[in-house]
Amino acid sequence: MKTLILSSSLSPRSRSYLLCRATEERLLREAGCEIDFVDLREVELAPHHRPRPQDMDTLKERITAADNYILGMGVHCYSVNDSLKLVLDNCCEGMVGKFFGILCAGGGQRSYLSTMHLTQICMNEWRMIQLPRVVYALWKDFEGDTIPEGELSLRLDEFCRDFHSIGGKLLR
After folding, report:
1. In angstroms, how far apart are the furthest CA atoms of the chain?
2. Distance between CA 171 and CA 169 in Å, rounded?
3. Is 138 exposed, middle or buried (CB count within 10 Å of its CB: 0-12, 13-18, 19+)?
4. How many CA atoms lie less than 13 Å away from 3 in the CB half-sphere?
5. Separation CA 120–CA 68 (nearest Å)
6. What is d(CA 5, CA 71) in angstroms, rounded to the nearest whole number?
7. CB atoms within 10 A of CB 126
8. In total, how many domains does the chain have?
9. C-beta atoms surrounding 66 within 10 Å
10. Is 49 helix (H, G, I), strand (E, B) or coil?
11. Which contacts of 25-34 are long-range, i.e. CB under 8 A and separated by 24 or more positions?
12. Which residues, in sequence order, are CB contacts of 150 under 8 Å at separation 6+?
């Protein structure tokens, strides 16, 4: 099972990036998954009406080659951020019918439904199947740039266990 983990935040201190890296570590350690990790801070992006950078063509190939996806996002105006939207609009035709999960870092407790916009895009545009478990974390769930032992760590464990189990069954 080849999983592409997409960390979409461009922030240098991104908490959704920390969630993505922690998930990658768990899936490698516990499930032995093949992981392709994409940090959009390292990818040149451009909107559809501008010349397409080579990075976006390469990213499109990597997305198409994956069996399933974990999408990491921060909350921006109760929706996905602009970098993730650029990728969704320009690189994701190869995601049709595949499985995905969402990791989200938000600034407040009332933004947890912001992940529903991403769910709608993926399910309506590409008829994807979503893991019914979303990890939504707040700033207070982190200790600096680390994820401490506790509730968030347990939720990530559960997310990874379910993602691997359900994703593996869907590939059969």
Report:
1. 46
2. 5
3. middle
4. 30
5. 17
6. 6
7. 17
8. 1
9. 23
10. coil
11. 26/156, 26/157, 26/160, 27/3, 27/160, 27/163, 27/164, 30/160, 30/161, 30/164, 31/160, 31/164, 33/1, 33/2, 33/3, 33/164, 34/1, 34/2, 34/3
12. 141
3-class DSSP assignment, residue 149: coil
Separation of alpha carbons 121 and 56, rounded Å: 19
- Strand boundaries in 21-115, DSSP class E: 34-39, 68-74, 99-106
Per the listing, tokens 């994701």 go with 92
CA angle (16, 20, 22) in 5-degree steps: 115
CA distance 87 to 17: 16
Q: What is the CATH number of the domain that holds 79?
A: 3.40.50.360
pLDDT tens series, the chain, 172 aa: 899 999 999 999 999 999 999 999 999 998 889 999 999 999 999 998 899 999 999 999 999 999 999 999 998 777 889 999 999 999 999 999 999 999 999 887 777 788 999 999 999 999 999 999 999 999 999 999 999 999 999 999 999 999 999 998 887 6
Q: Which domain holds residue 10?
A: 2-171
